């Protein structure tokens, strides 16, 4: 069994650290990757982080994960609230999926309150800042290890 965890990120998250720092903070996606790699390594797992501004590319990454990953952490960003295609792709993945949002989407505009991805996710984190990714990786490690 593979011990790789995919960490997938949707549109505008390439600008993490520069984009609305009052909401998303000052740390970058490279910081997310470094922190998650450390957490995963403690448990004997590794991570691969991807980001795309394109819905179809994220669908392709989920398809790749079917063979290459034991679990997925996904922050679909704005596609959370719109993408049946990402939901359908996640439904083809057999391992655990954790949905992670940096901000507390429930405290924000009502259009952010609905998530298609939550229909598939085994757990959802929102409002923990980028620490949420670490918590999500920790949980994926436990689930992939059978607990
Ligand atoms: C987000 C919340 C989404 O509503 C938003 O479109 C994002 C980021 C978050 O991490 O808080 O781009 O997923």
Automatic annotation (TrEMBL):
InterPro entries registered for this protein in UniProt: DHquinase_II, DHquinase_II_CS, DHquinase_II_sf
Binding sites annotated in the UniProt record for substrate: 75, 81, 88, 102-103, 112
Active-site residues annotated for this sequence: 24, 101
Annotated keywords: Amino-acid biosynthesis, Aromatic amino acid biosynthesis, Lyase
Site entry (Transition state stabilizer), positions: 19
SUPFAM superfamilies: Type II 3-dehydroquinate dehydratase (SSF52304)
A Pfam family per the record: DHquinase_II
This enzyme's EC code(s): 4.2.1.10
Pathway: Metabolic intermediate biosynthesis; chorismate biosynthesis; chorismate from D-erythrose 4-phosphate and phosphoenolpyruvate: step 3/7
Function: Catalyzes a trans-dehydration via an enolate intermediate.
Family label: Belongs to the type-II 3-dehydroquinase family.
Subunit structure: Homododecamer.
UniProt name for this protein: 3-dehydroquinate dehydratase
Organism whose genome encodes this protein: Cereibacter johrii
């Amino acid at each position: 069994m593979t011990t790789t965890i995919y960490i997938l990120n949707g549109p505008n998250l390439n600008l993490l650290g520069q984009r609305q720092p009052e909401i998303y903070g000052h740390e970058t996606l490279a910081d997310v990757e470094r922190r998650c790699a450390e957490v995963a390594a403690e448990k004997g797992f590794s991570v691969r982080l991807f980001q795309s501004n394109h819905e179809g590319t994220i669908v392709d990454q989920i398809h790749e994960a079917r063979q290459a990953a034991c679990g997925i952490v996904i922050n679909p960003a704005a596609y959370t609230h719109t993408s049946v295609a990402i939901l359908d792709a996640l439904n083809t993945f057999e391992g655990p999926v954790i949905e992670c949002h940096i901000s507390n989407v429930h405290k924000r505009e009502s259009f952010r309150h609905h998530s298609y991805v939550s229909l598939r996710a085994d757990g959802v984190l929102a409002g923990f800042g980028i620490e949420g990714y670490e918590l999500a990786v920790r949980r994926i490690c436990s689930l992939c290890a059978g607990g």
